[in-house]
Amino acid sequence: xxxxxxxxxxxxxxxxxxxxxxxxxxxxxxxxxxxxxxxxxxxxxxxxxxxxxxxxxxxxxxxxxxxxxxxxxxxxxxxxxxxxxxxxxxxxxxxxxxxxxxxxxxxxxxxxxxxxxxxxxxxxxxxxxxxxxxxxxxxxxxxxxxxxxxxxxxxxxxxxxxxxxxxxxxx
Length: 171
Fold this sequence. Notes:
By secondary structure, the protein is an alpha+beta fold.
């Protein structure tokens, strides 16, 4: 485990690449860390939108909070983040593994959310846990610089995202 919270993790999750040009690698890992830390801090609205391209698509697989799963664009993602503040008292992202090579970032994450309200048979104060992997390719800090010619706008933080998640009630 790297850290129990993304906000407590070292810059770029402590990764120090062996390559001669580690700048993009470290910058993309740091972008991923800042994003997870922002989620932990409850960031919403424009501050959260700054992490995404306007045509982002989030794929959420069925879980205890969203049993049907779903696909969301940026407006729906921002609304879900706002609504999530009413449902969750706290959430943290425990990054188990982080890997980057240039513009490709892979994270293995344990998400832990503490409910603020009763949700079905899960009571306020109980924790939910979800394990997920995230893969982002062509990660670039949004709004930081003009996109290069021929750049295809990424989904989530990358061109391709593999994301699987399941949530379980804490024992």
